[in-house]
Amino acid sequence: MSQTTPTMAALTDPRTGTERLSVAVGRARETGAAVAAARAAQPAWAGLTPRDRARRLLRFADLIEERSAEYARAERAGTGKPAAEAEGEVGNCADLLRFYAGALRADTAPAAGRRMPGRESWVRWEPLGVVAAIVPWNYPLMMAAWRIGPALAAGNTVVLKPAVTTPDTALLLARDAAETLGRDVLRTVPGDRDTGRLLVADGVDAVAFTGSVAGGQDVAARAGLRRLSLELGGNCPALVLPDAPDDTCDALVWAVTYNAGQSCAAPARVITLRQNHDRVVEGLAKAMSDRRAGADFGPLNNADQAARYDRVIESSAAGVDHVAGIAPAPGEEGGYWRPGRILADLAPDDAAVVEEVFGPVLTVQAADGAEEAVALANSVPQALAASVWGSDTGTVLALAGELNAGEVWVNCHLDQTAELPHGGRGSSGHGTDMSVLALAEYQRPKTVTVRIGRH
């Protein structure tokens, strides 16, 4: 009896550009089996008391931390991140799971009580069932934790589909979840876009997707009326006022080169006033000249992303282009290294402004005043995150309120913690990652009302 030959995907080391291993790609048989197994495991997982479910999540976090070196190696294999970045993200993953282990025991529902004469009412928060979590390649472990943490805490089981280029840590998560949470509470199915489409079609109860706008639209079309949580990109503005702190340029350059700028919340579009434009361009160029791909930050993730970066840069008509250096380690010259860049003197519709480069690139635009600066900041469809840099408290807080973004920083950028929500607007999607608010993404309320007495 013949068996179907599995479809294999070749995985590349982004630091060298060479093949590192191959992995079987999930197809209808694999996605169907994973969803069926997760559905069978869900009632028992949801039936645990909050205390017992929290204990298992805490043990899961402990095991990730105990095996942190293995996780960091796996994360670096798929992304090429520097060791310090990978190690920090493993720690963040464990911290997030511990946060939700505690959050699930906090009562966030409306208090029970007598809301109508002769009636006693309360609200139950119930899990959705089986959640498909489809996560991208830029933060394979951390994006998985953002999705599976609240979903598991709420009593759902999860089928995790990592990006085809970065399945390494997702497979470790499924292994360690089976040891600590229970069999099939968390399943991982490696694969490509077709795998994700099959997973959505397999009757899951909700889909949590982090990725491109086009990918999110495809998921939404296939999911129908099922619950969706979508995080779809940023192209984030940073408003730099004339009285911005002295470390502003250094901070923005660090933020756009962390993970090689492959972060939806990274700064992308610096917007100044006319009077400080040239000073900011000079400061950013100086700061970027001290950050070299290979020595200070990692490569782009894959050949398609590198080609996209090249296309956007080549399409840009920027009059000013400050290019930093590249310093790959010996033997890594063929990797997807791209230099940090500062682009200025560009039109509002320049390709590097309207498209999210998703790389170590900052564009700089000048506005005639604060009102025009806000208009430029809000001029793109994405509305995920933004920052404001200045010394006058009233001014920066007023501008923060006018920016159309789900998260705004003042005199900092990319500062996040499990207690604070993160989510987008507009074409950046909808839904909430992190904080206790994210639990509601994976629950549904049920009101129970009981008649008391004979009348």
From TrEMBL:
Keyword Electron transport: no
Top-level taxonomic group: Bacteria
Domain Aldehyde dehydrogenase: 9-448
Protein name: Aldehyde dehydrogenase family protein
Keywords: Oxidoreductase
